[in-house]
From TrEMBL:
Region (Disordered): 296-315
One Pfam family it belongs to: Bac_luciferase
Keyword Oxidoreductase on entry: yes
Gene Ontology MF term list: oxidoreductase activity, acting on paired donors, with incorporation or reduction of molecular oxygen
Name of protein: LLM class flavin-dependent oxidoreductase
Organism of derivation: Cellulosimicrobium funkei
InterPro entries (alphabetical): F420-G6PD/mer (IPR050564), Luciferase-like_dom (IPR011251), Luciferase-like_sf (IPR036661)
Amino acid sequence: MPDYGHDLRFGSFVTPTAAAPQQAVALAQLSEEVGLDLVTFQDHPYQAAFLDTWTLLSWVAARTERIRLAGNVLNLPLRPAAVLARAVASLDRLSGGRVELGLGAGGFWDPIVAMGGERLTPGQSVDALSEGIDVIRGLWDTTTRERLEVGGTYHHVDGAKRGPAPAHDVEIWVGALKPRMLRLVGAQADGWLPSLAYLQSFEALAQGNATIDAAAQEAGRDPRAVRRLLNVGGRFTADGGAGFLQGSPRQWAEQVAEVTLEHGVSTWIVGGDDPTTLAVVGQEVAPAARELVAAARGTTDGPAPVAPADGGARA
């Protein structure tokens, strides 16, 4: 299934530097001004050189009006799932439905432990992420008045009150590379959010999609329920370049459209803190890429209808 039919989105991946805190805010505001759909920030709570990502997301939400916001990705080992569920729902309601939830299982365990987190094996971290998603979705589900009980080993609640529900169906995007995490994405998540620099090839992207699709089908889900996102880097050159996203805005648009149609990537998140790059992506690359994809599909660039990620109603 090379093209999952999702609407094309473009976003920024801004460094949450603490030394110049207003820089991140200004780049988020610029992202909105130039027409980008999304602004994201990495989340390393143990990194003293960075602002706290959740505080930054809340501040940026108050300083913008339209753009979506997400962690890229939030560090679940240091953010208890039940509290995170309420924080996300609260900010989504305050921002008018503009928050999405990027989640990661953790990876830098020495600093996580130094901050009071528990050291987990790779297998345990996947189990913990699965349990965390169950807790988050359960607390968001206000279609029932029954208190939530999730008896996980790493994330559990014992009779928690549900709510508040988010203002919209918040998408849960998971940063994943290895097979077991990819299978979790297919079974439970709304999106797969890797970085091209870590994947290193489009062959790896295709293999990841195949693993996710198989897991989704095994779980009784339509693979189109999983949005495919990608963190990328690149540069604009006047004379054209050899390589992916190394050329003119038109070359970028053509390459984005090609990968969208061949590998299903529908959300492109551009890293770096250069205002000119963000402006060109929002004002030139995004419109051109949308036109190319719409022409190839023979339709307007709109989302394909899919089933909810959890297979049931969401408030």
